[in-house]
Design a protein that fits this description.
Helices cover 39% and strands 22% of the residues. The protein has helices at 44-51, 74-77, 97-108, 115-128, 144-156, 174-189, 201-207, 225-230, 232-237, 244-251, 261-275, and strands at 6-16, 19-29, 34-37, 59-64, 67-68, 81-84, 162-166, 193-197, 210-215, 218-224. β1 and β2 form a beta hairpin. The termini are far apart. It binds adenosine-5'-triphosphate (ATP) and magnesium ion. Magnesium ion is lined by residues 44-45, 86, 166.
Length: 276
């Protein structure tokens, strides 16, 4: 088994005294692409902000690549873990696309690397999200979907091992969502650990091996996506919807939980044989 790159031990977190929005979370993450799902207010964003070191645990510990987040700085952690915020305007503040992306690399490597290196890394990151022909534009002249990709590029440019995306599919059309799925696949191939918070259960089924369900500040279920989505009771408790393919398979009384069209076709052929 691959060692856990993220370890969370007895984590509690409260914004206001004694109002815990994360309660006794024990979880580990290795390099499996993982989706984090749960209804509004379940604590997903708070959880990933704690992982990123932006919020410190009220109780318990978080280790990122062996380092306790209490014993390091957000700047140090940025070299290992990047978080793409749900709302691009929380992350963007420069007036040119290229400056926006170079900001992170210039800051985290200011002691060792030169400007050329930061530029090269930024161009590489912009190529991945296909914005490398927009360098001089103002970020606010990009569409919302492009701004979300720009924020992702700003994180990729710092080359962290772990990349967390908070609701990347919101405000994306089908085409952009597919493009995002392709980018995520590339990043995984490149050795990145990807955690994604999303409400889009079809996106979960198609792209993530592991799914964690948050419910009222706790982990309600966690495991291979197929297994987690087979347990409808938990999905209903967490106020989530099953992916469309899974709904269809259930309506047809499949014995399997198909996550992709290929799974569905395979399930359908065994189902037809059983019928016939
Ligand atoms: N800065 C804050 N100060 C006080 N309470 C907060 C703050 N941010 C979030 N909360 C509260 O913490 C709880 C968890 O919120 P969080 O944003 O982590 O949930 P979420 O699962 O990301 O929800 P969503 O799906 O709506 O993004 C909610 O009750 C929320 O109101
Ligand atoms: Mg959130």
């Amino acid at each position: 088994m691959v060692d856990a790159i993220i370890k969370v031990d007895g984590l509690w977190f409260a914004y206001k005294e004694d109002e815990y929005v994360l309660q006794n979370i024990d979880i580990q993450f290795d390099d499996k692409p993982t989706a984090i799902v749960g209804q509004n207010g379940a604590g997903k964003t708070t959880f990933v902000k704690v992982l990123k070191g932006l919020l410190k645990p009220s109780k318990g510990d978080v280790w990122i690549a062996g380092t306790n987040t209490k014993e390091t700085t957000v700047a140090q952690l940025s070299k290992i873990i990047g978080l793409v915020f749900q709302n691009p305007s929380d992350q963007m503040f420069k007036s040119k696309v290229i400056d926006e992306v170079m900001f992170g690399p210039l800051n985290i490597w200011k002691d060792k690397k030169d400007k050329n290196f930061a530029y090269e890394q930024s161009i590489k990151a912009l190529k991945i999200v296909e914005l490398d022909n927009r360098l001089e534009e103002h970020p606010y002249d990009l569409t919302l979907s492009e701004r979300k990709l720009l924020c992702l590029a700003s994180i990729i440019a710092m080359d962290p091992k772990i990349i967390i995306l908070d609701e990347p599919t919101i405000a994306q059309d089908r085409f952009s969502t597919r493009k995002l799925a392709e980018i995520i696949k590339e990043l995984i191939k490149d050795g990145k650990v990807i955690l994604t918070i999303t409400h889009d259960m079809d996106f979960v089924a198609e792209n993530f091996e592991r799914t964690v369900i948050f419910y009222q500040g706790r982990v309600l279920d966690d495991g291979p996506t197929e297994k987690v989505l087979s347990n409808e009771e938990n999905v209903v408790t967490a106020h989530l919807e099953l992916p469309n393919l899974v709904k269809l398979a259930k309506a047809l009384d499949f014995k399997t939980t198909p996550l992709t069209i290929d799974d569905f076709v395979e399930g359908f052929s065994t189902y037809k044989k059983a019928e016939g």
